[in-house]
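User: Before I run my own analysis I want an independent prediction to cross-check against. Here's the chain; please return only the structure tokens and, at the end, one sentence I can use as a sanity check.
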Amino acid sequence: MKYDQFIATVAERAGVPRDEAERLTRATLQVLAQRLTGGEAKDLRSQMPKELQPDLTKDQDPAERFDVDEFARRVAERSGTDEADAGAGVMAVLATIHDAVTPGEFDDVLAQLGREFKELVEAAT
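Assistant: Structure tokens:
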């Protein structure tokens, strides 16, 4: 999936303007990189549009463990939106990642995120 299509899809799914979709996408990917192991972040990065790949760069290898609410709080803080909009943005970005990468890669990401995230993605796709 190309960058413009990715952002347009997130904007449509989240019901936000394009510029907000870009901020939410980048913030979500940055927080996602914190939540994944270094190897998994690298694998996912390789299948994402090149413009978004830097946002999946991992600072440290161990994955941080935090729930969906903390994920949305971190995205809200990074994107400058409230937590409700951030939560909708997270769901929209994860659903768009689902469409953009191979099923096996997305399954690997969900395996690290856990059941709570899987249920959110299933509701959004």
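Sanity check: The radius of gyration is 13 Å.
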